[in-house]
Specification:
This protein is an all-beta fold. It has a single domain, classed as Ubiquitin Ligase Nedd4, Chain: W, CATH 2.20.70. About 0% of the residues lie in helices and about 40% in strands. Strands 1-2-3-4 form a 4-stranded antiparallel sheet, with no helix packed on it. The radius of gyration is 10 Å and the shape is globular. The relative contact order is 0.26.
C-alpha cells in the first residue's frame, strides 16, 4: 500500500482518496501515481 511522508501507511477513503492518520494530509491516486493534495487558504 501507499505510505505518506512520515512513513505511515495511508488509510483509503475510497474513490482513489487516501489520508495520513498521523498528519491528516490527503492524497489522490490516479493511474498508479499518488499526489498529495493541497488546501486553498
Amino acid at each position: 500500500g501507499w505510505v505518506g511522508r512520515t512513513g505511515e501507511p495511508l488509510v483509503a477513503k475510497g474513490d482513489g482518496q487516501y489520508v495520513c492518520p498521523r498528519t491528516g494530509a490527503e492524497y489522490r491516486e490516479d493511474a498508479g501515481r499518488l499526489t498529495e493534495l493541497t488546501r486553498a487558504e
